TrEMBL record:
Domain Leucine-binding protein as annotated: residue spans: 26-356
Cross-referenced PANTHER family: LEUCINE-SPECIFIC-BINDING PROTEIN
Highest taxon, organism lineage: Bacteria
Similarity section: Belongs to the leucine-binding protein family.
Protein name: Leucine-binding protein domain-containing protein
Pfam families given in the database record: Peripla_BP_6
UniProt keyword ATP-binding present: no
Keywords: Amino-acid transport, Signal, Transport
GO biological process terms held by the UniProt record: amino acid transport
Secretion signal, residue range per the UniProt entry: 1-21
Organism: Paracoccus kondratievae
Amino acid sequence: MIARMISSVLALTLGLGAANADELIIGSQIPLTGSAARAGMGMNEGIQVAAKVFNETNGKHTVKVITIDDESQPAKAVAAIEQLNAQGALAFTGGYGSNIIGPASDAAERLGKVYMTSGGVATELSQRGLKTFFRISNATGYAKALAGLSDTLDLQSFSLIYSTRESTAEVAKLLEEIWTAEGKKVTLHPFDPSIADFKPVLHKIKLQDRPEAIAMVGYENDYVGIIRAAKVLKPDAKAIMGTWSLATPKMWQDFPDLMNNVYGTAPLPYPAQFNTPEEQTFAEAYKEMHNKEPDYLGIFGYVQGLLLFNAVAEAYDAGTLNSGGVQDALRKTEHDTLIGKVIFDESGDNTNFAHRMAQHQDGAVAIVWPKESATAEARFPAVPW
């Protein structure tokens, strides 16, 4: 493993009585290299901001976050959990991709320690009977967001391109069920995660499907390959949309020629608009640490981090760290967060998770659905080619 261990502890003592402050060690297993690095780095930024805010505001404890790069590989994620545990981690956060989060959270369960993430949505993750697994997002929230935007745009036919990985296939299945039940035409195009050339798929879509919209359920490199092929073949579609890690400023920064008019999920616009005191605290800390505006990956990382830090501190104070106190603290109450109320059920799922749809608009990420949250009108029909 690239033991790229980042001891990111912002063990700040502002407002703390140093003699009374107890340092709580949190382990973060996260992809900083490999195929999921772009998403992992965004989540990591949010976790670091959560540590900074917690350390400056808790008044009693500080957290020390020890981060290990899992290199986007399941085996190295498990090794990271074991290594973090050996370094005294009281709980774990991070993780991106259900295929990586699954074995990593299994390892955490064997250790009897909580694992908190926003990076895996496969339903199976919360159906394993684990007591220590928690996530703030799920597949249903993503599928409902794409379906909701599609209804608003009155789209009636779709070419649905999706990776055969577990979580992506599950979201695609949910979308197919929703759209089929509404009487809409759906043509499925599953692809193996190893595929890099999407021109044959786009050729079929152009000549055979002729859909009103192209929907993608995959990861960053998949989106780039699909849109690149679409720019070459130019199918006559009115819209192209995807799920996570797509409507982000980083994707625009890296691929400005591909992203304009593309839809993806996002909780907030970019540049973000922060109004409440908590939102402003987050935004100011983020800009101070990273010298840029936060995006939704950072927001999710912040929310999962702060929820975990507060729960660990509560269990520490109650003397229940080793008897289920962290998971009890997470489940027993509703949590007000930057993404709305978070309510964990017995399986560790956030039953209140809902998403919004955004669109890349000339460098900005505008929320376009639902209507009550919109920051701009959707550009429609419009595609990047």
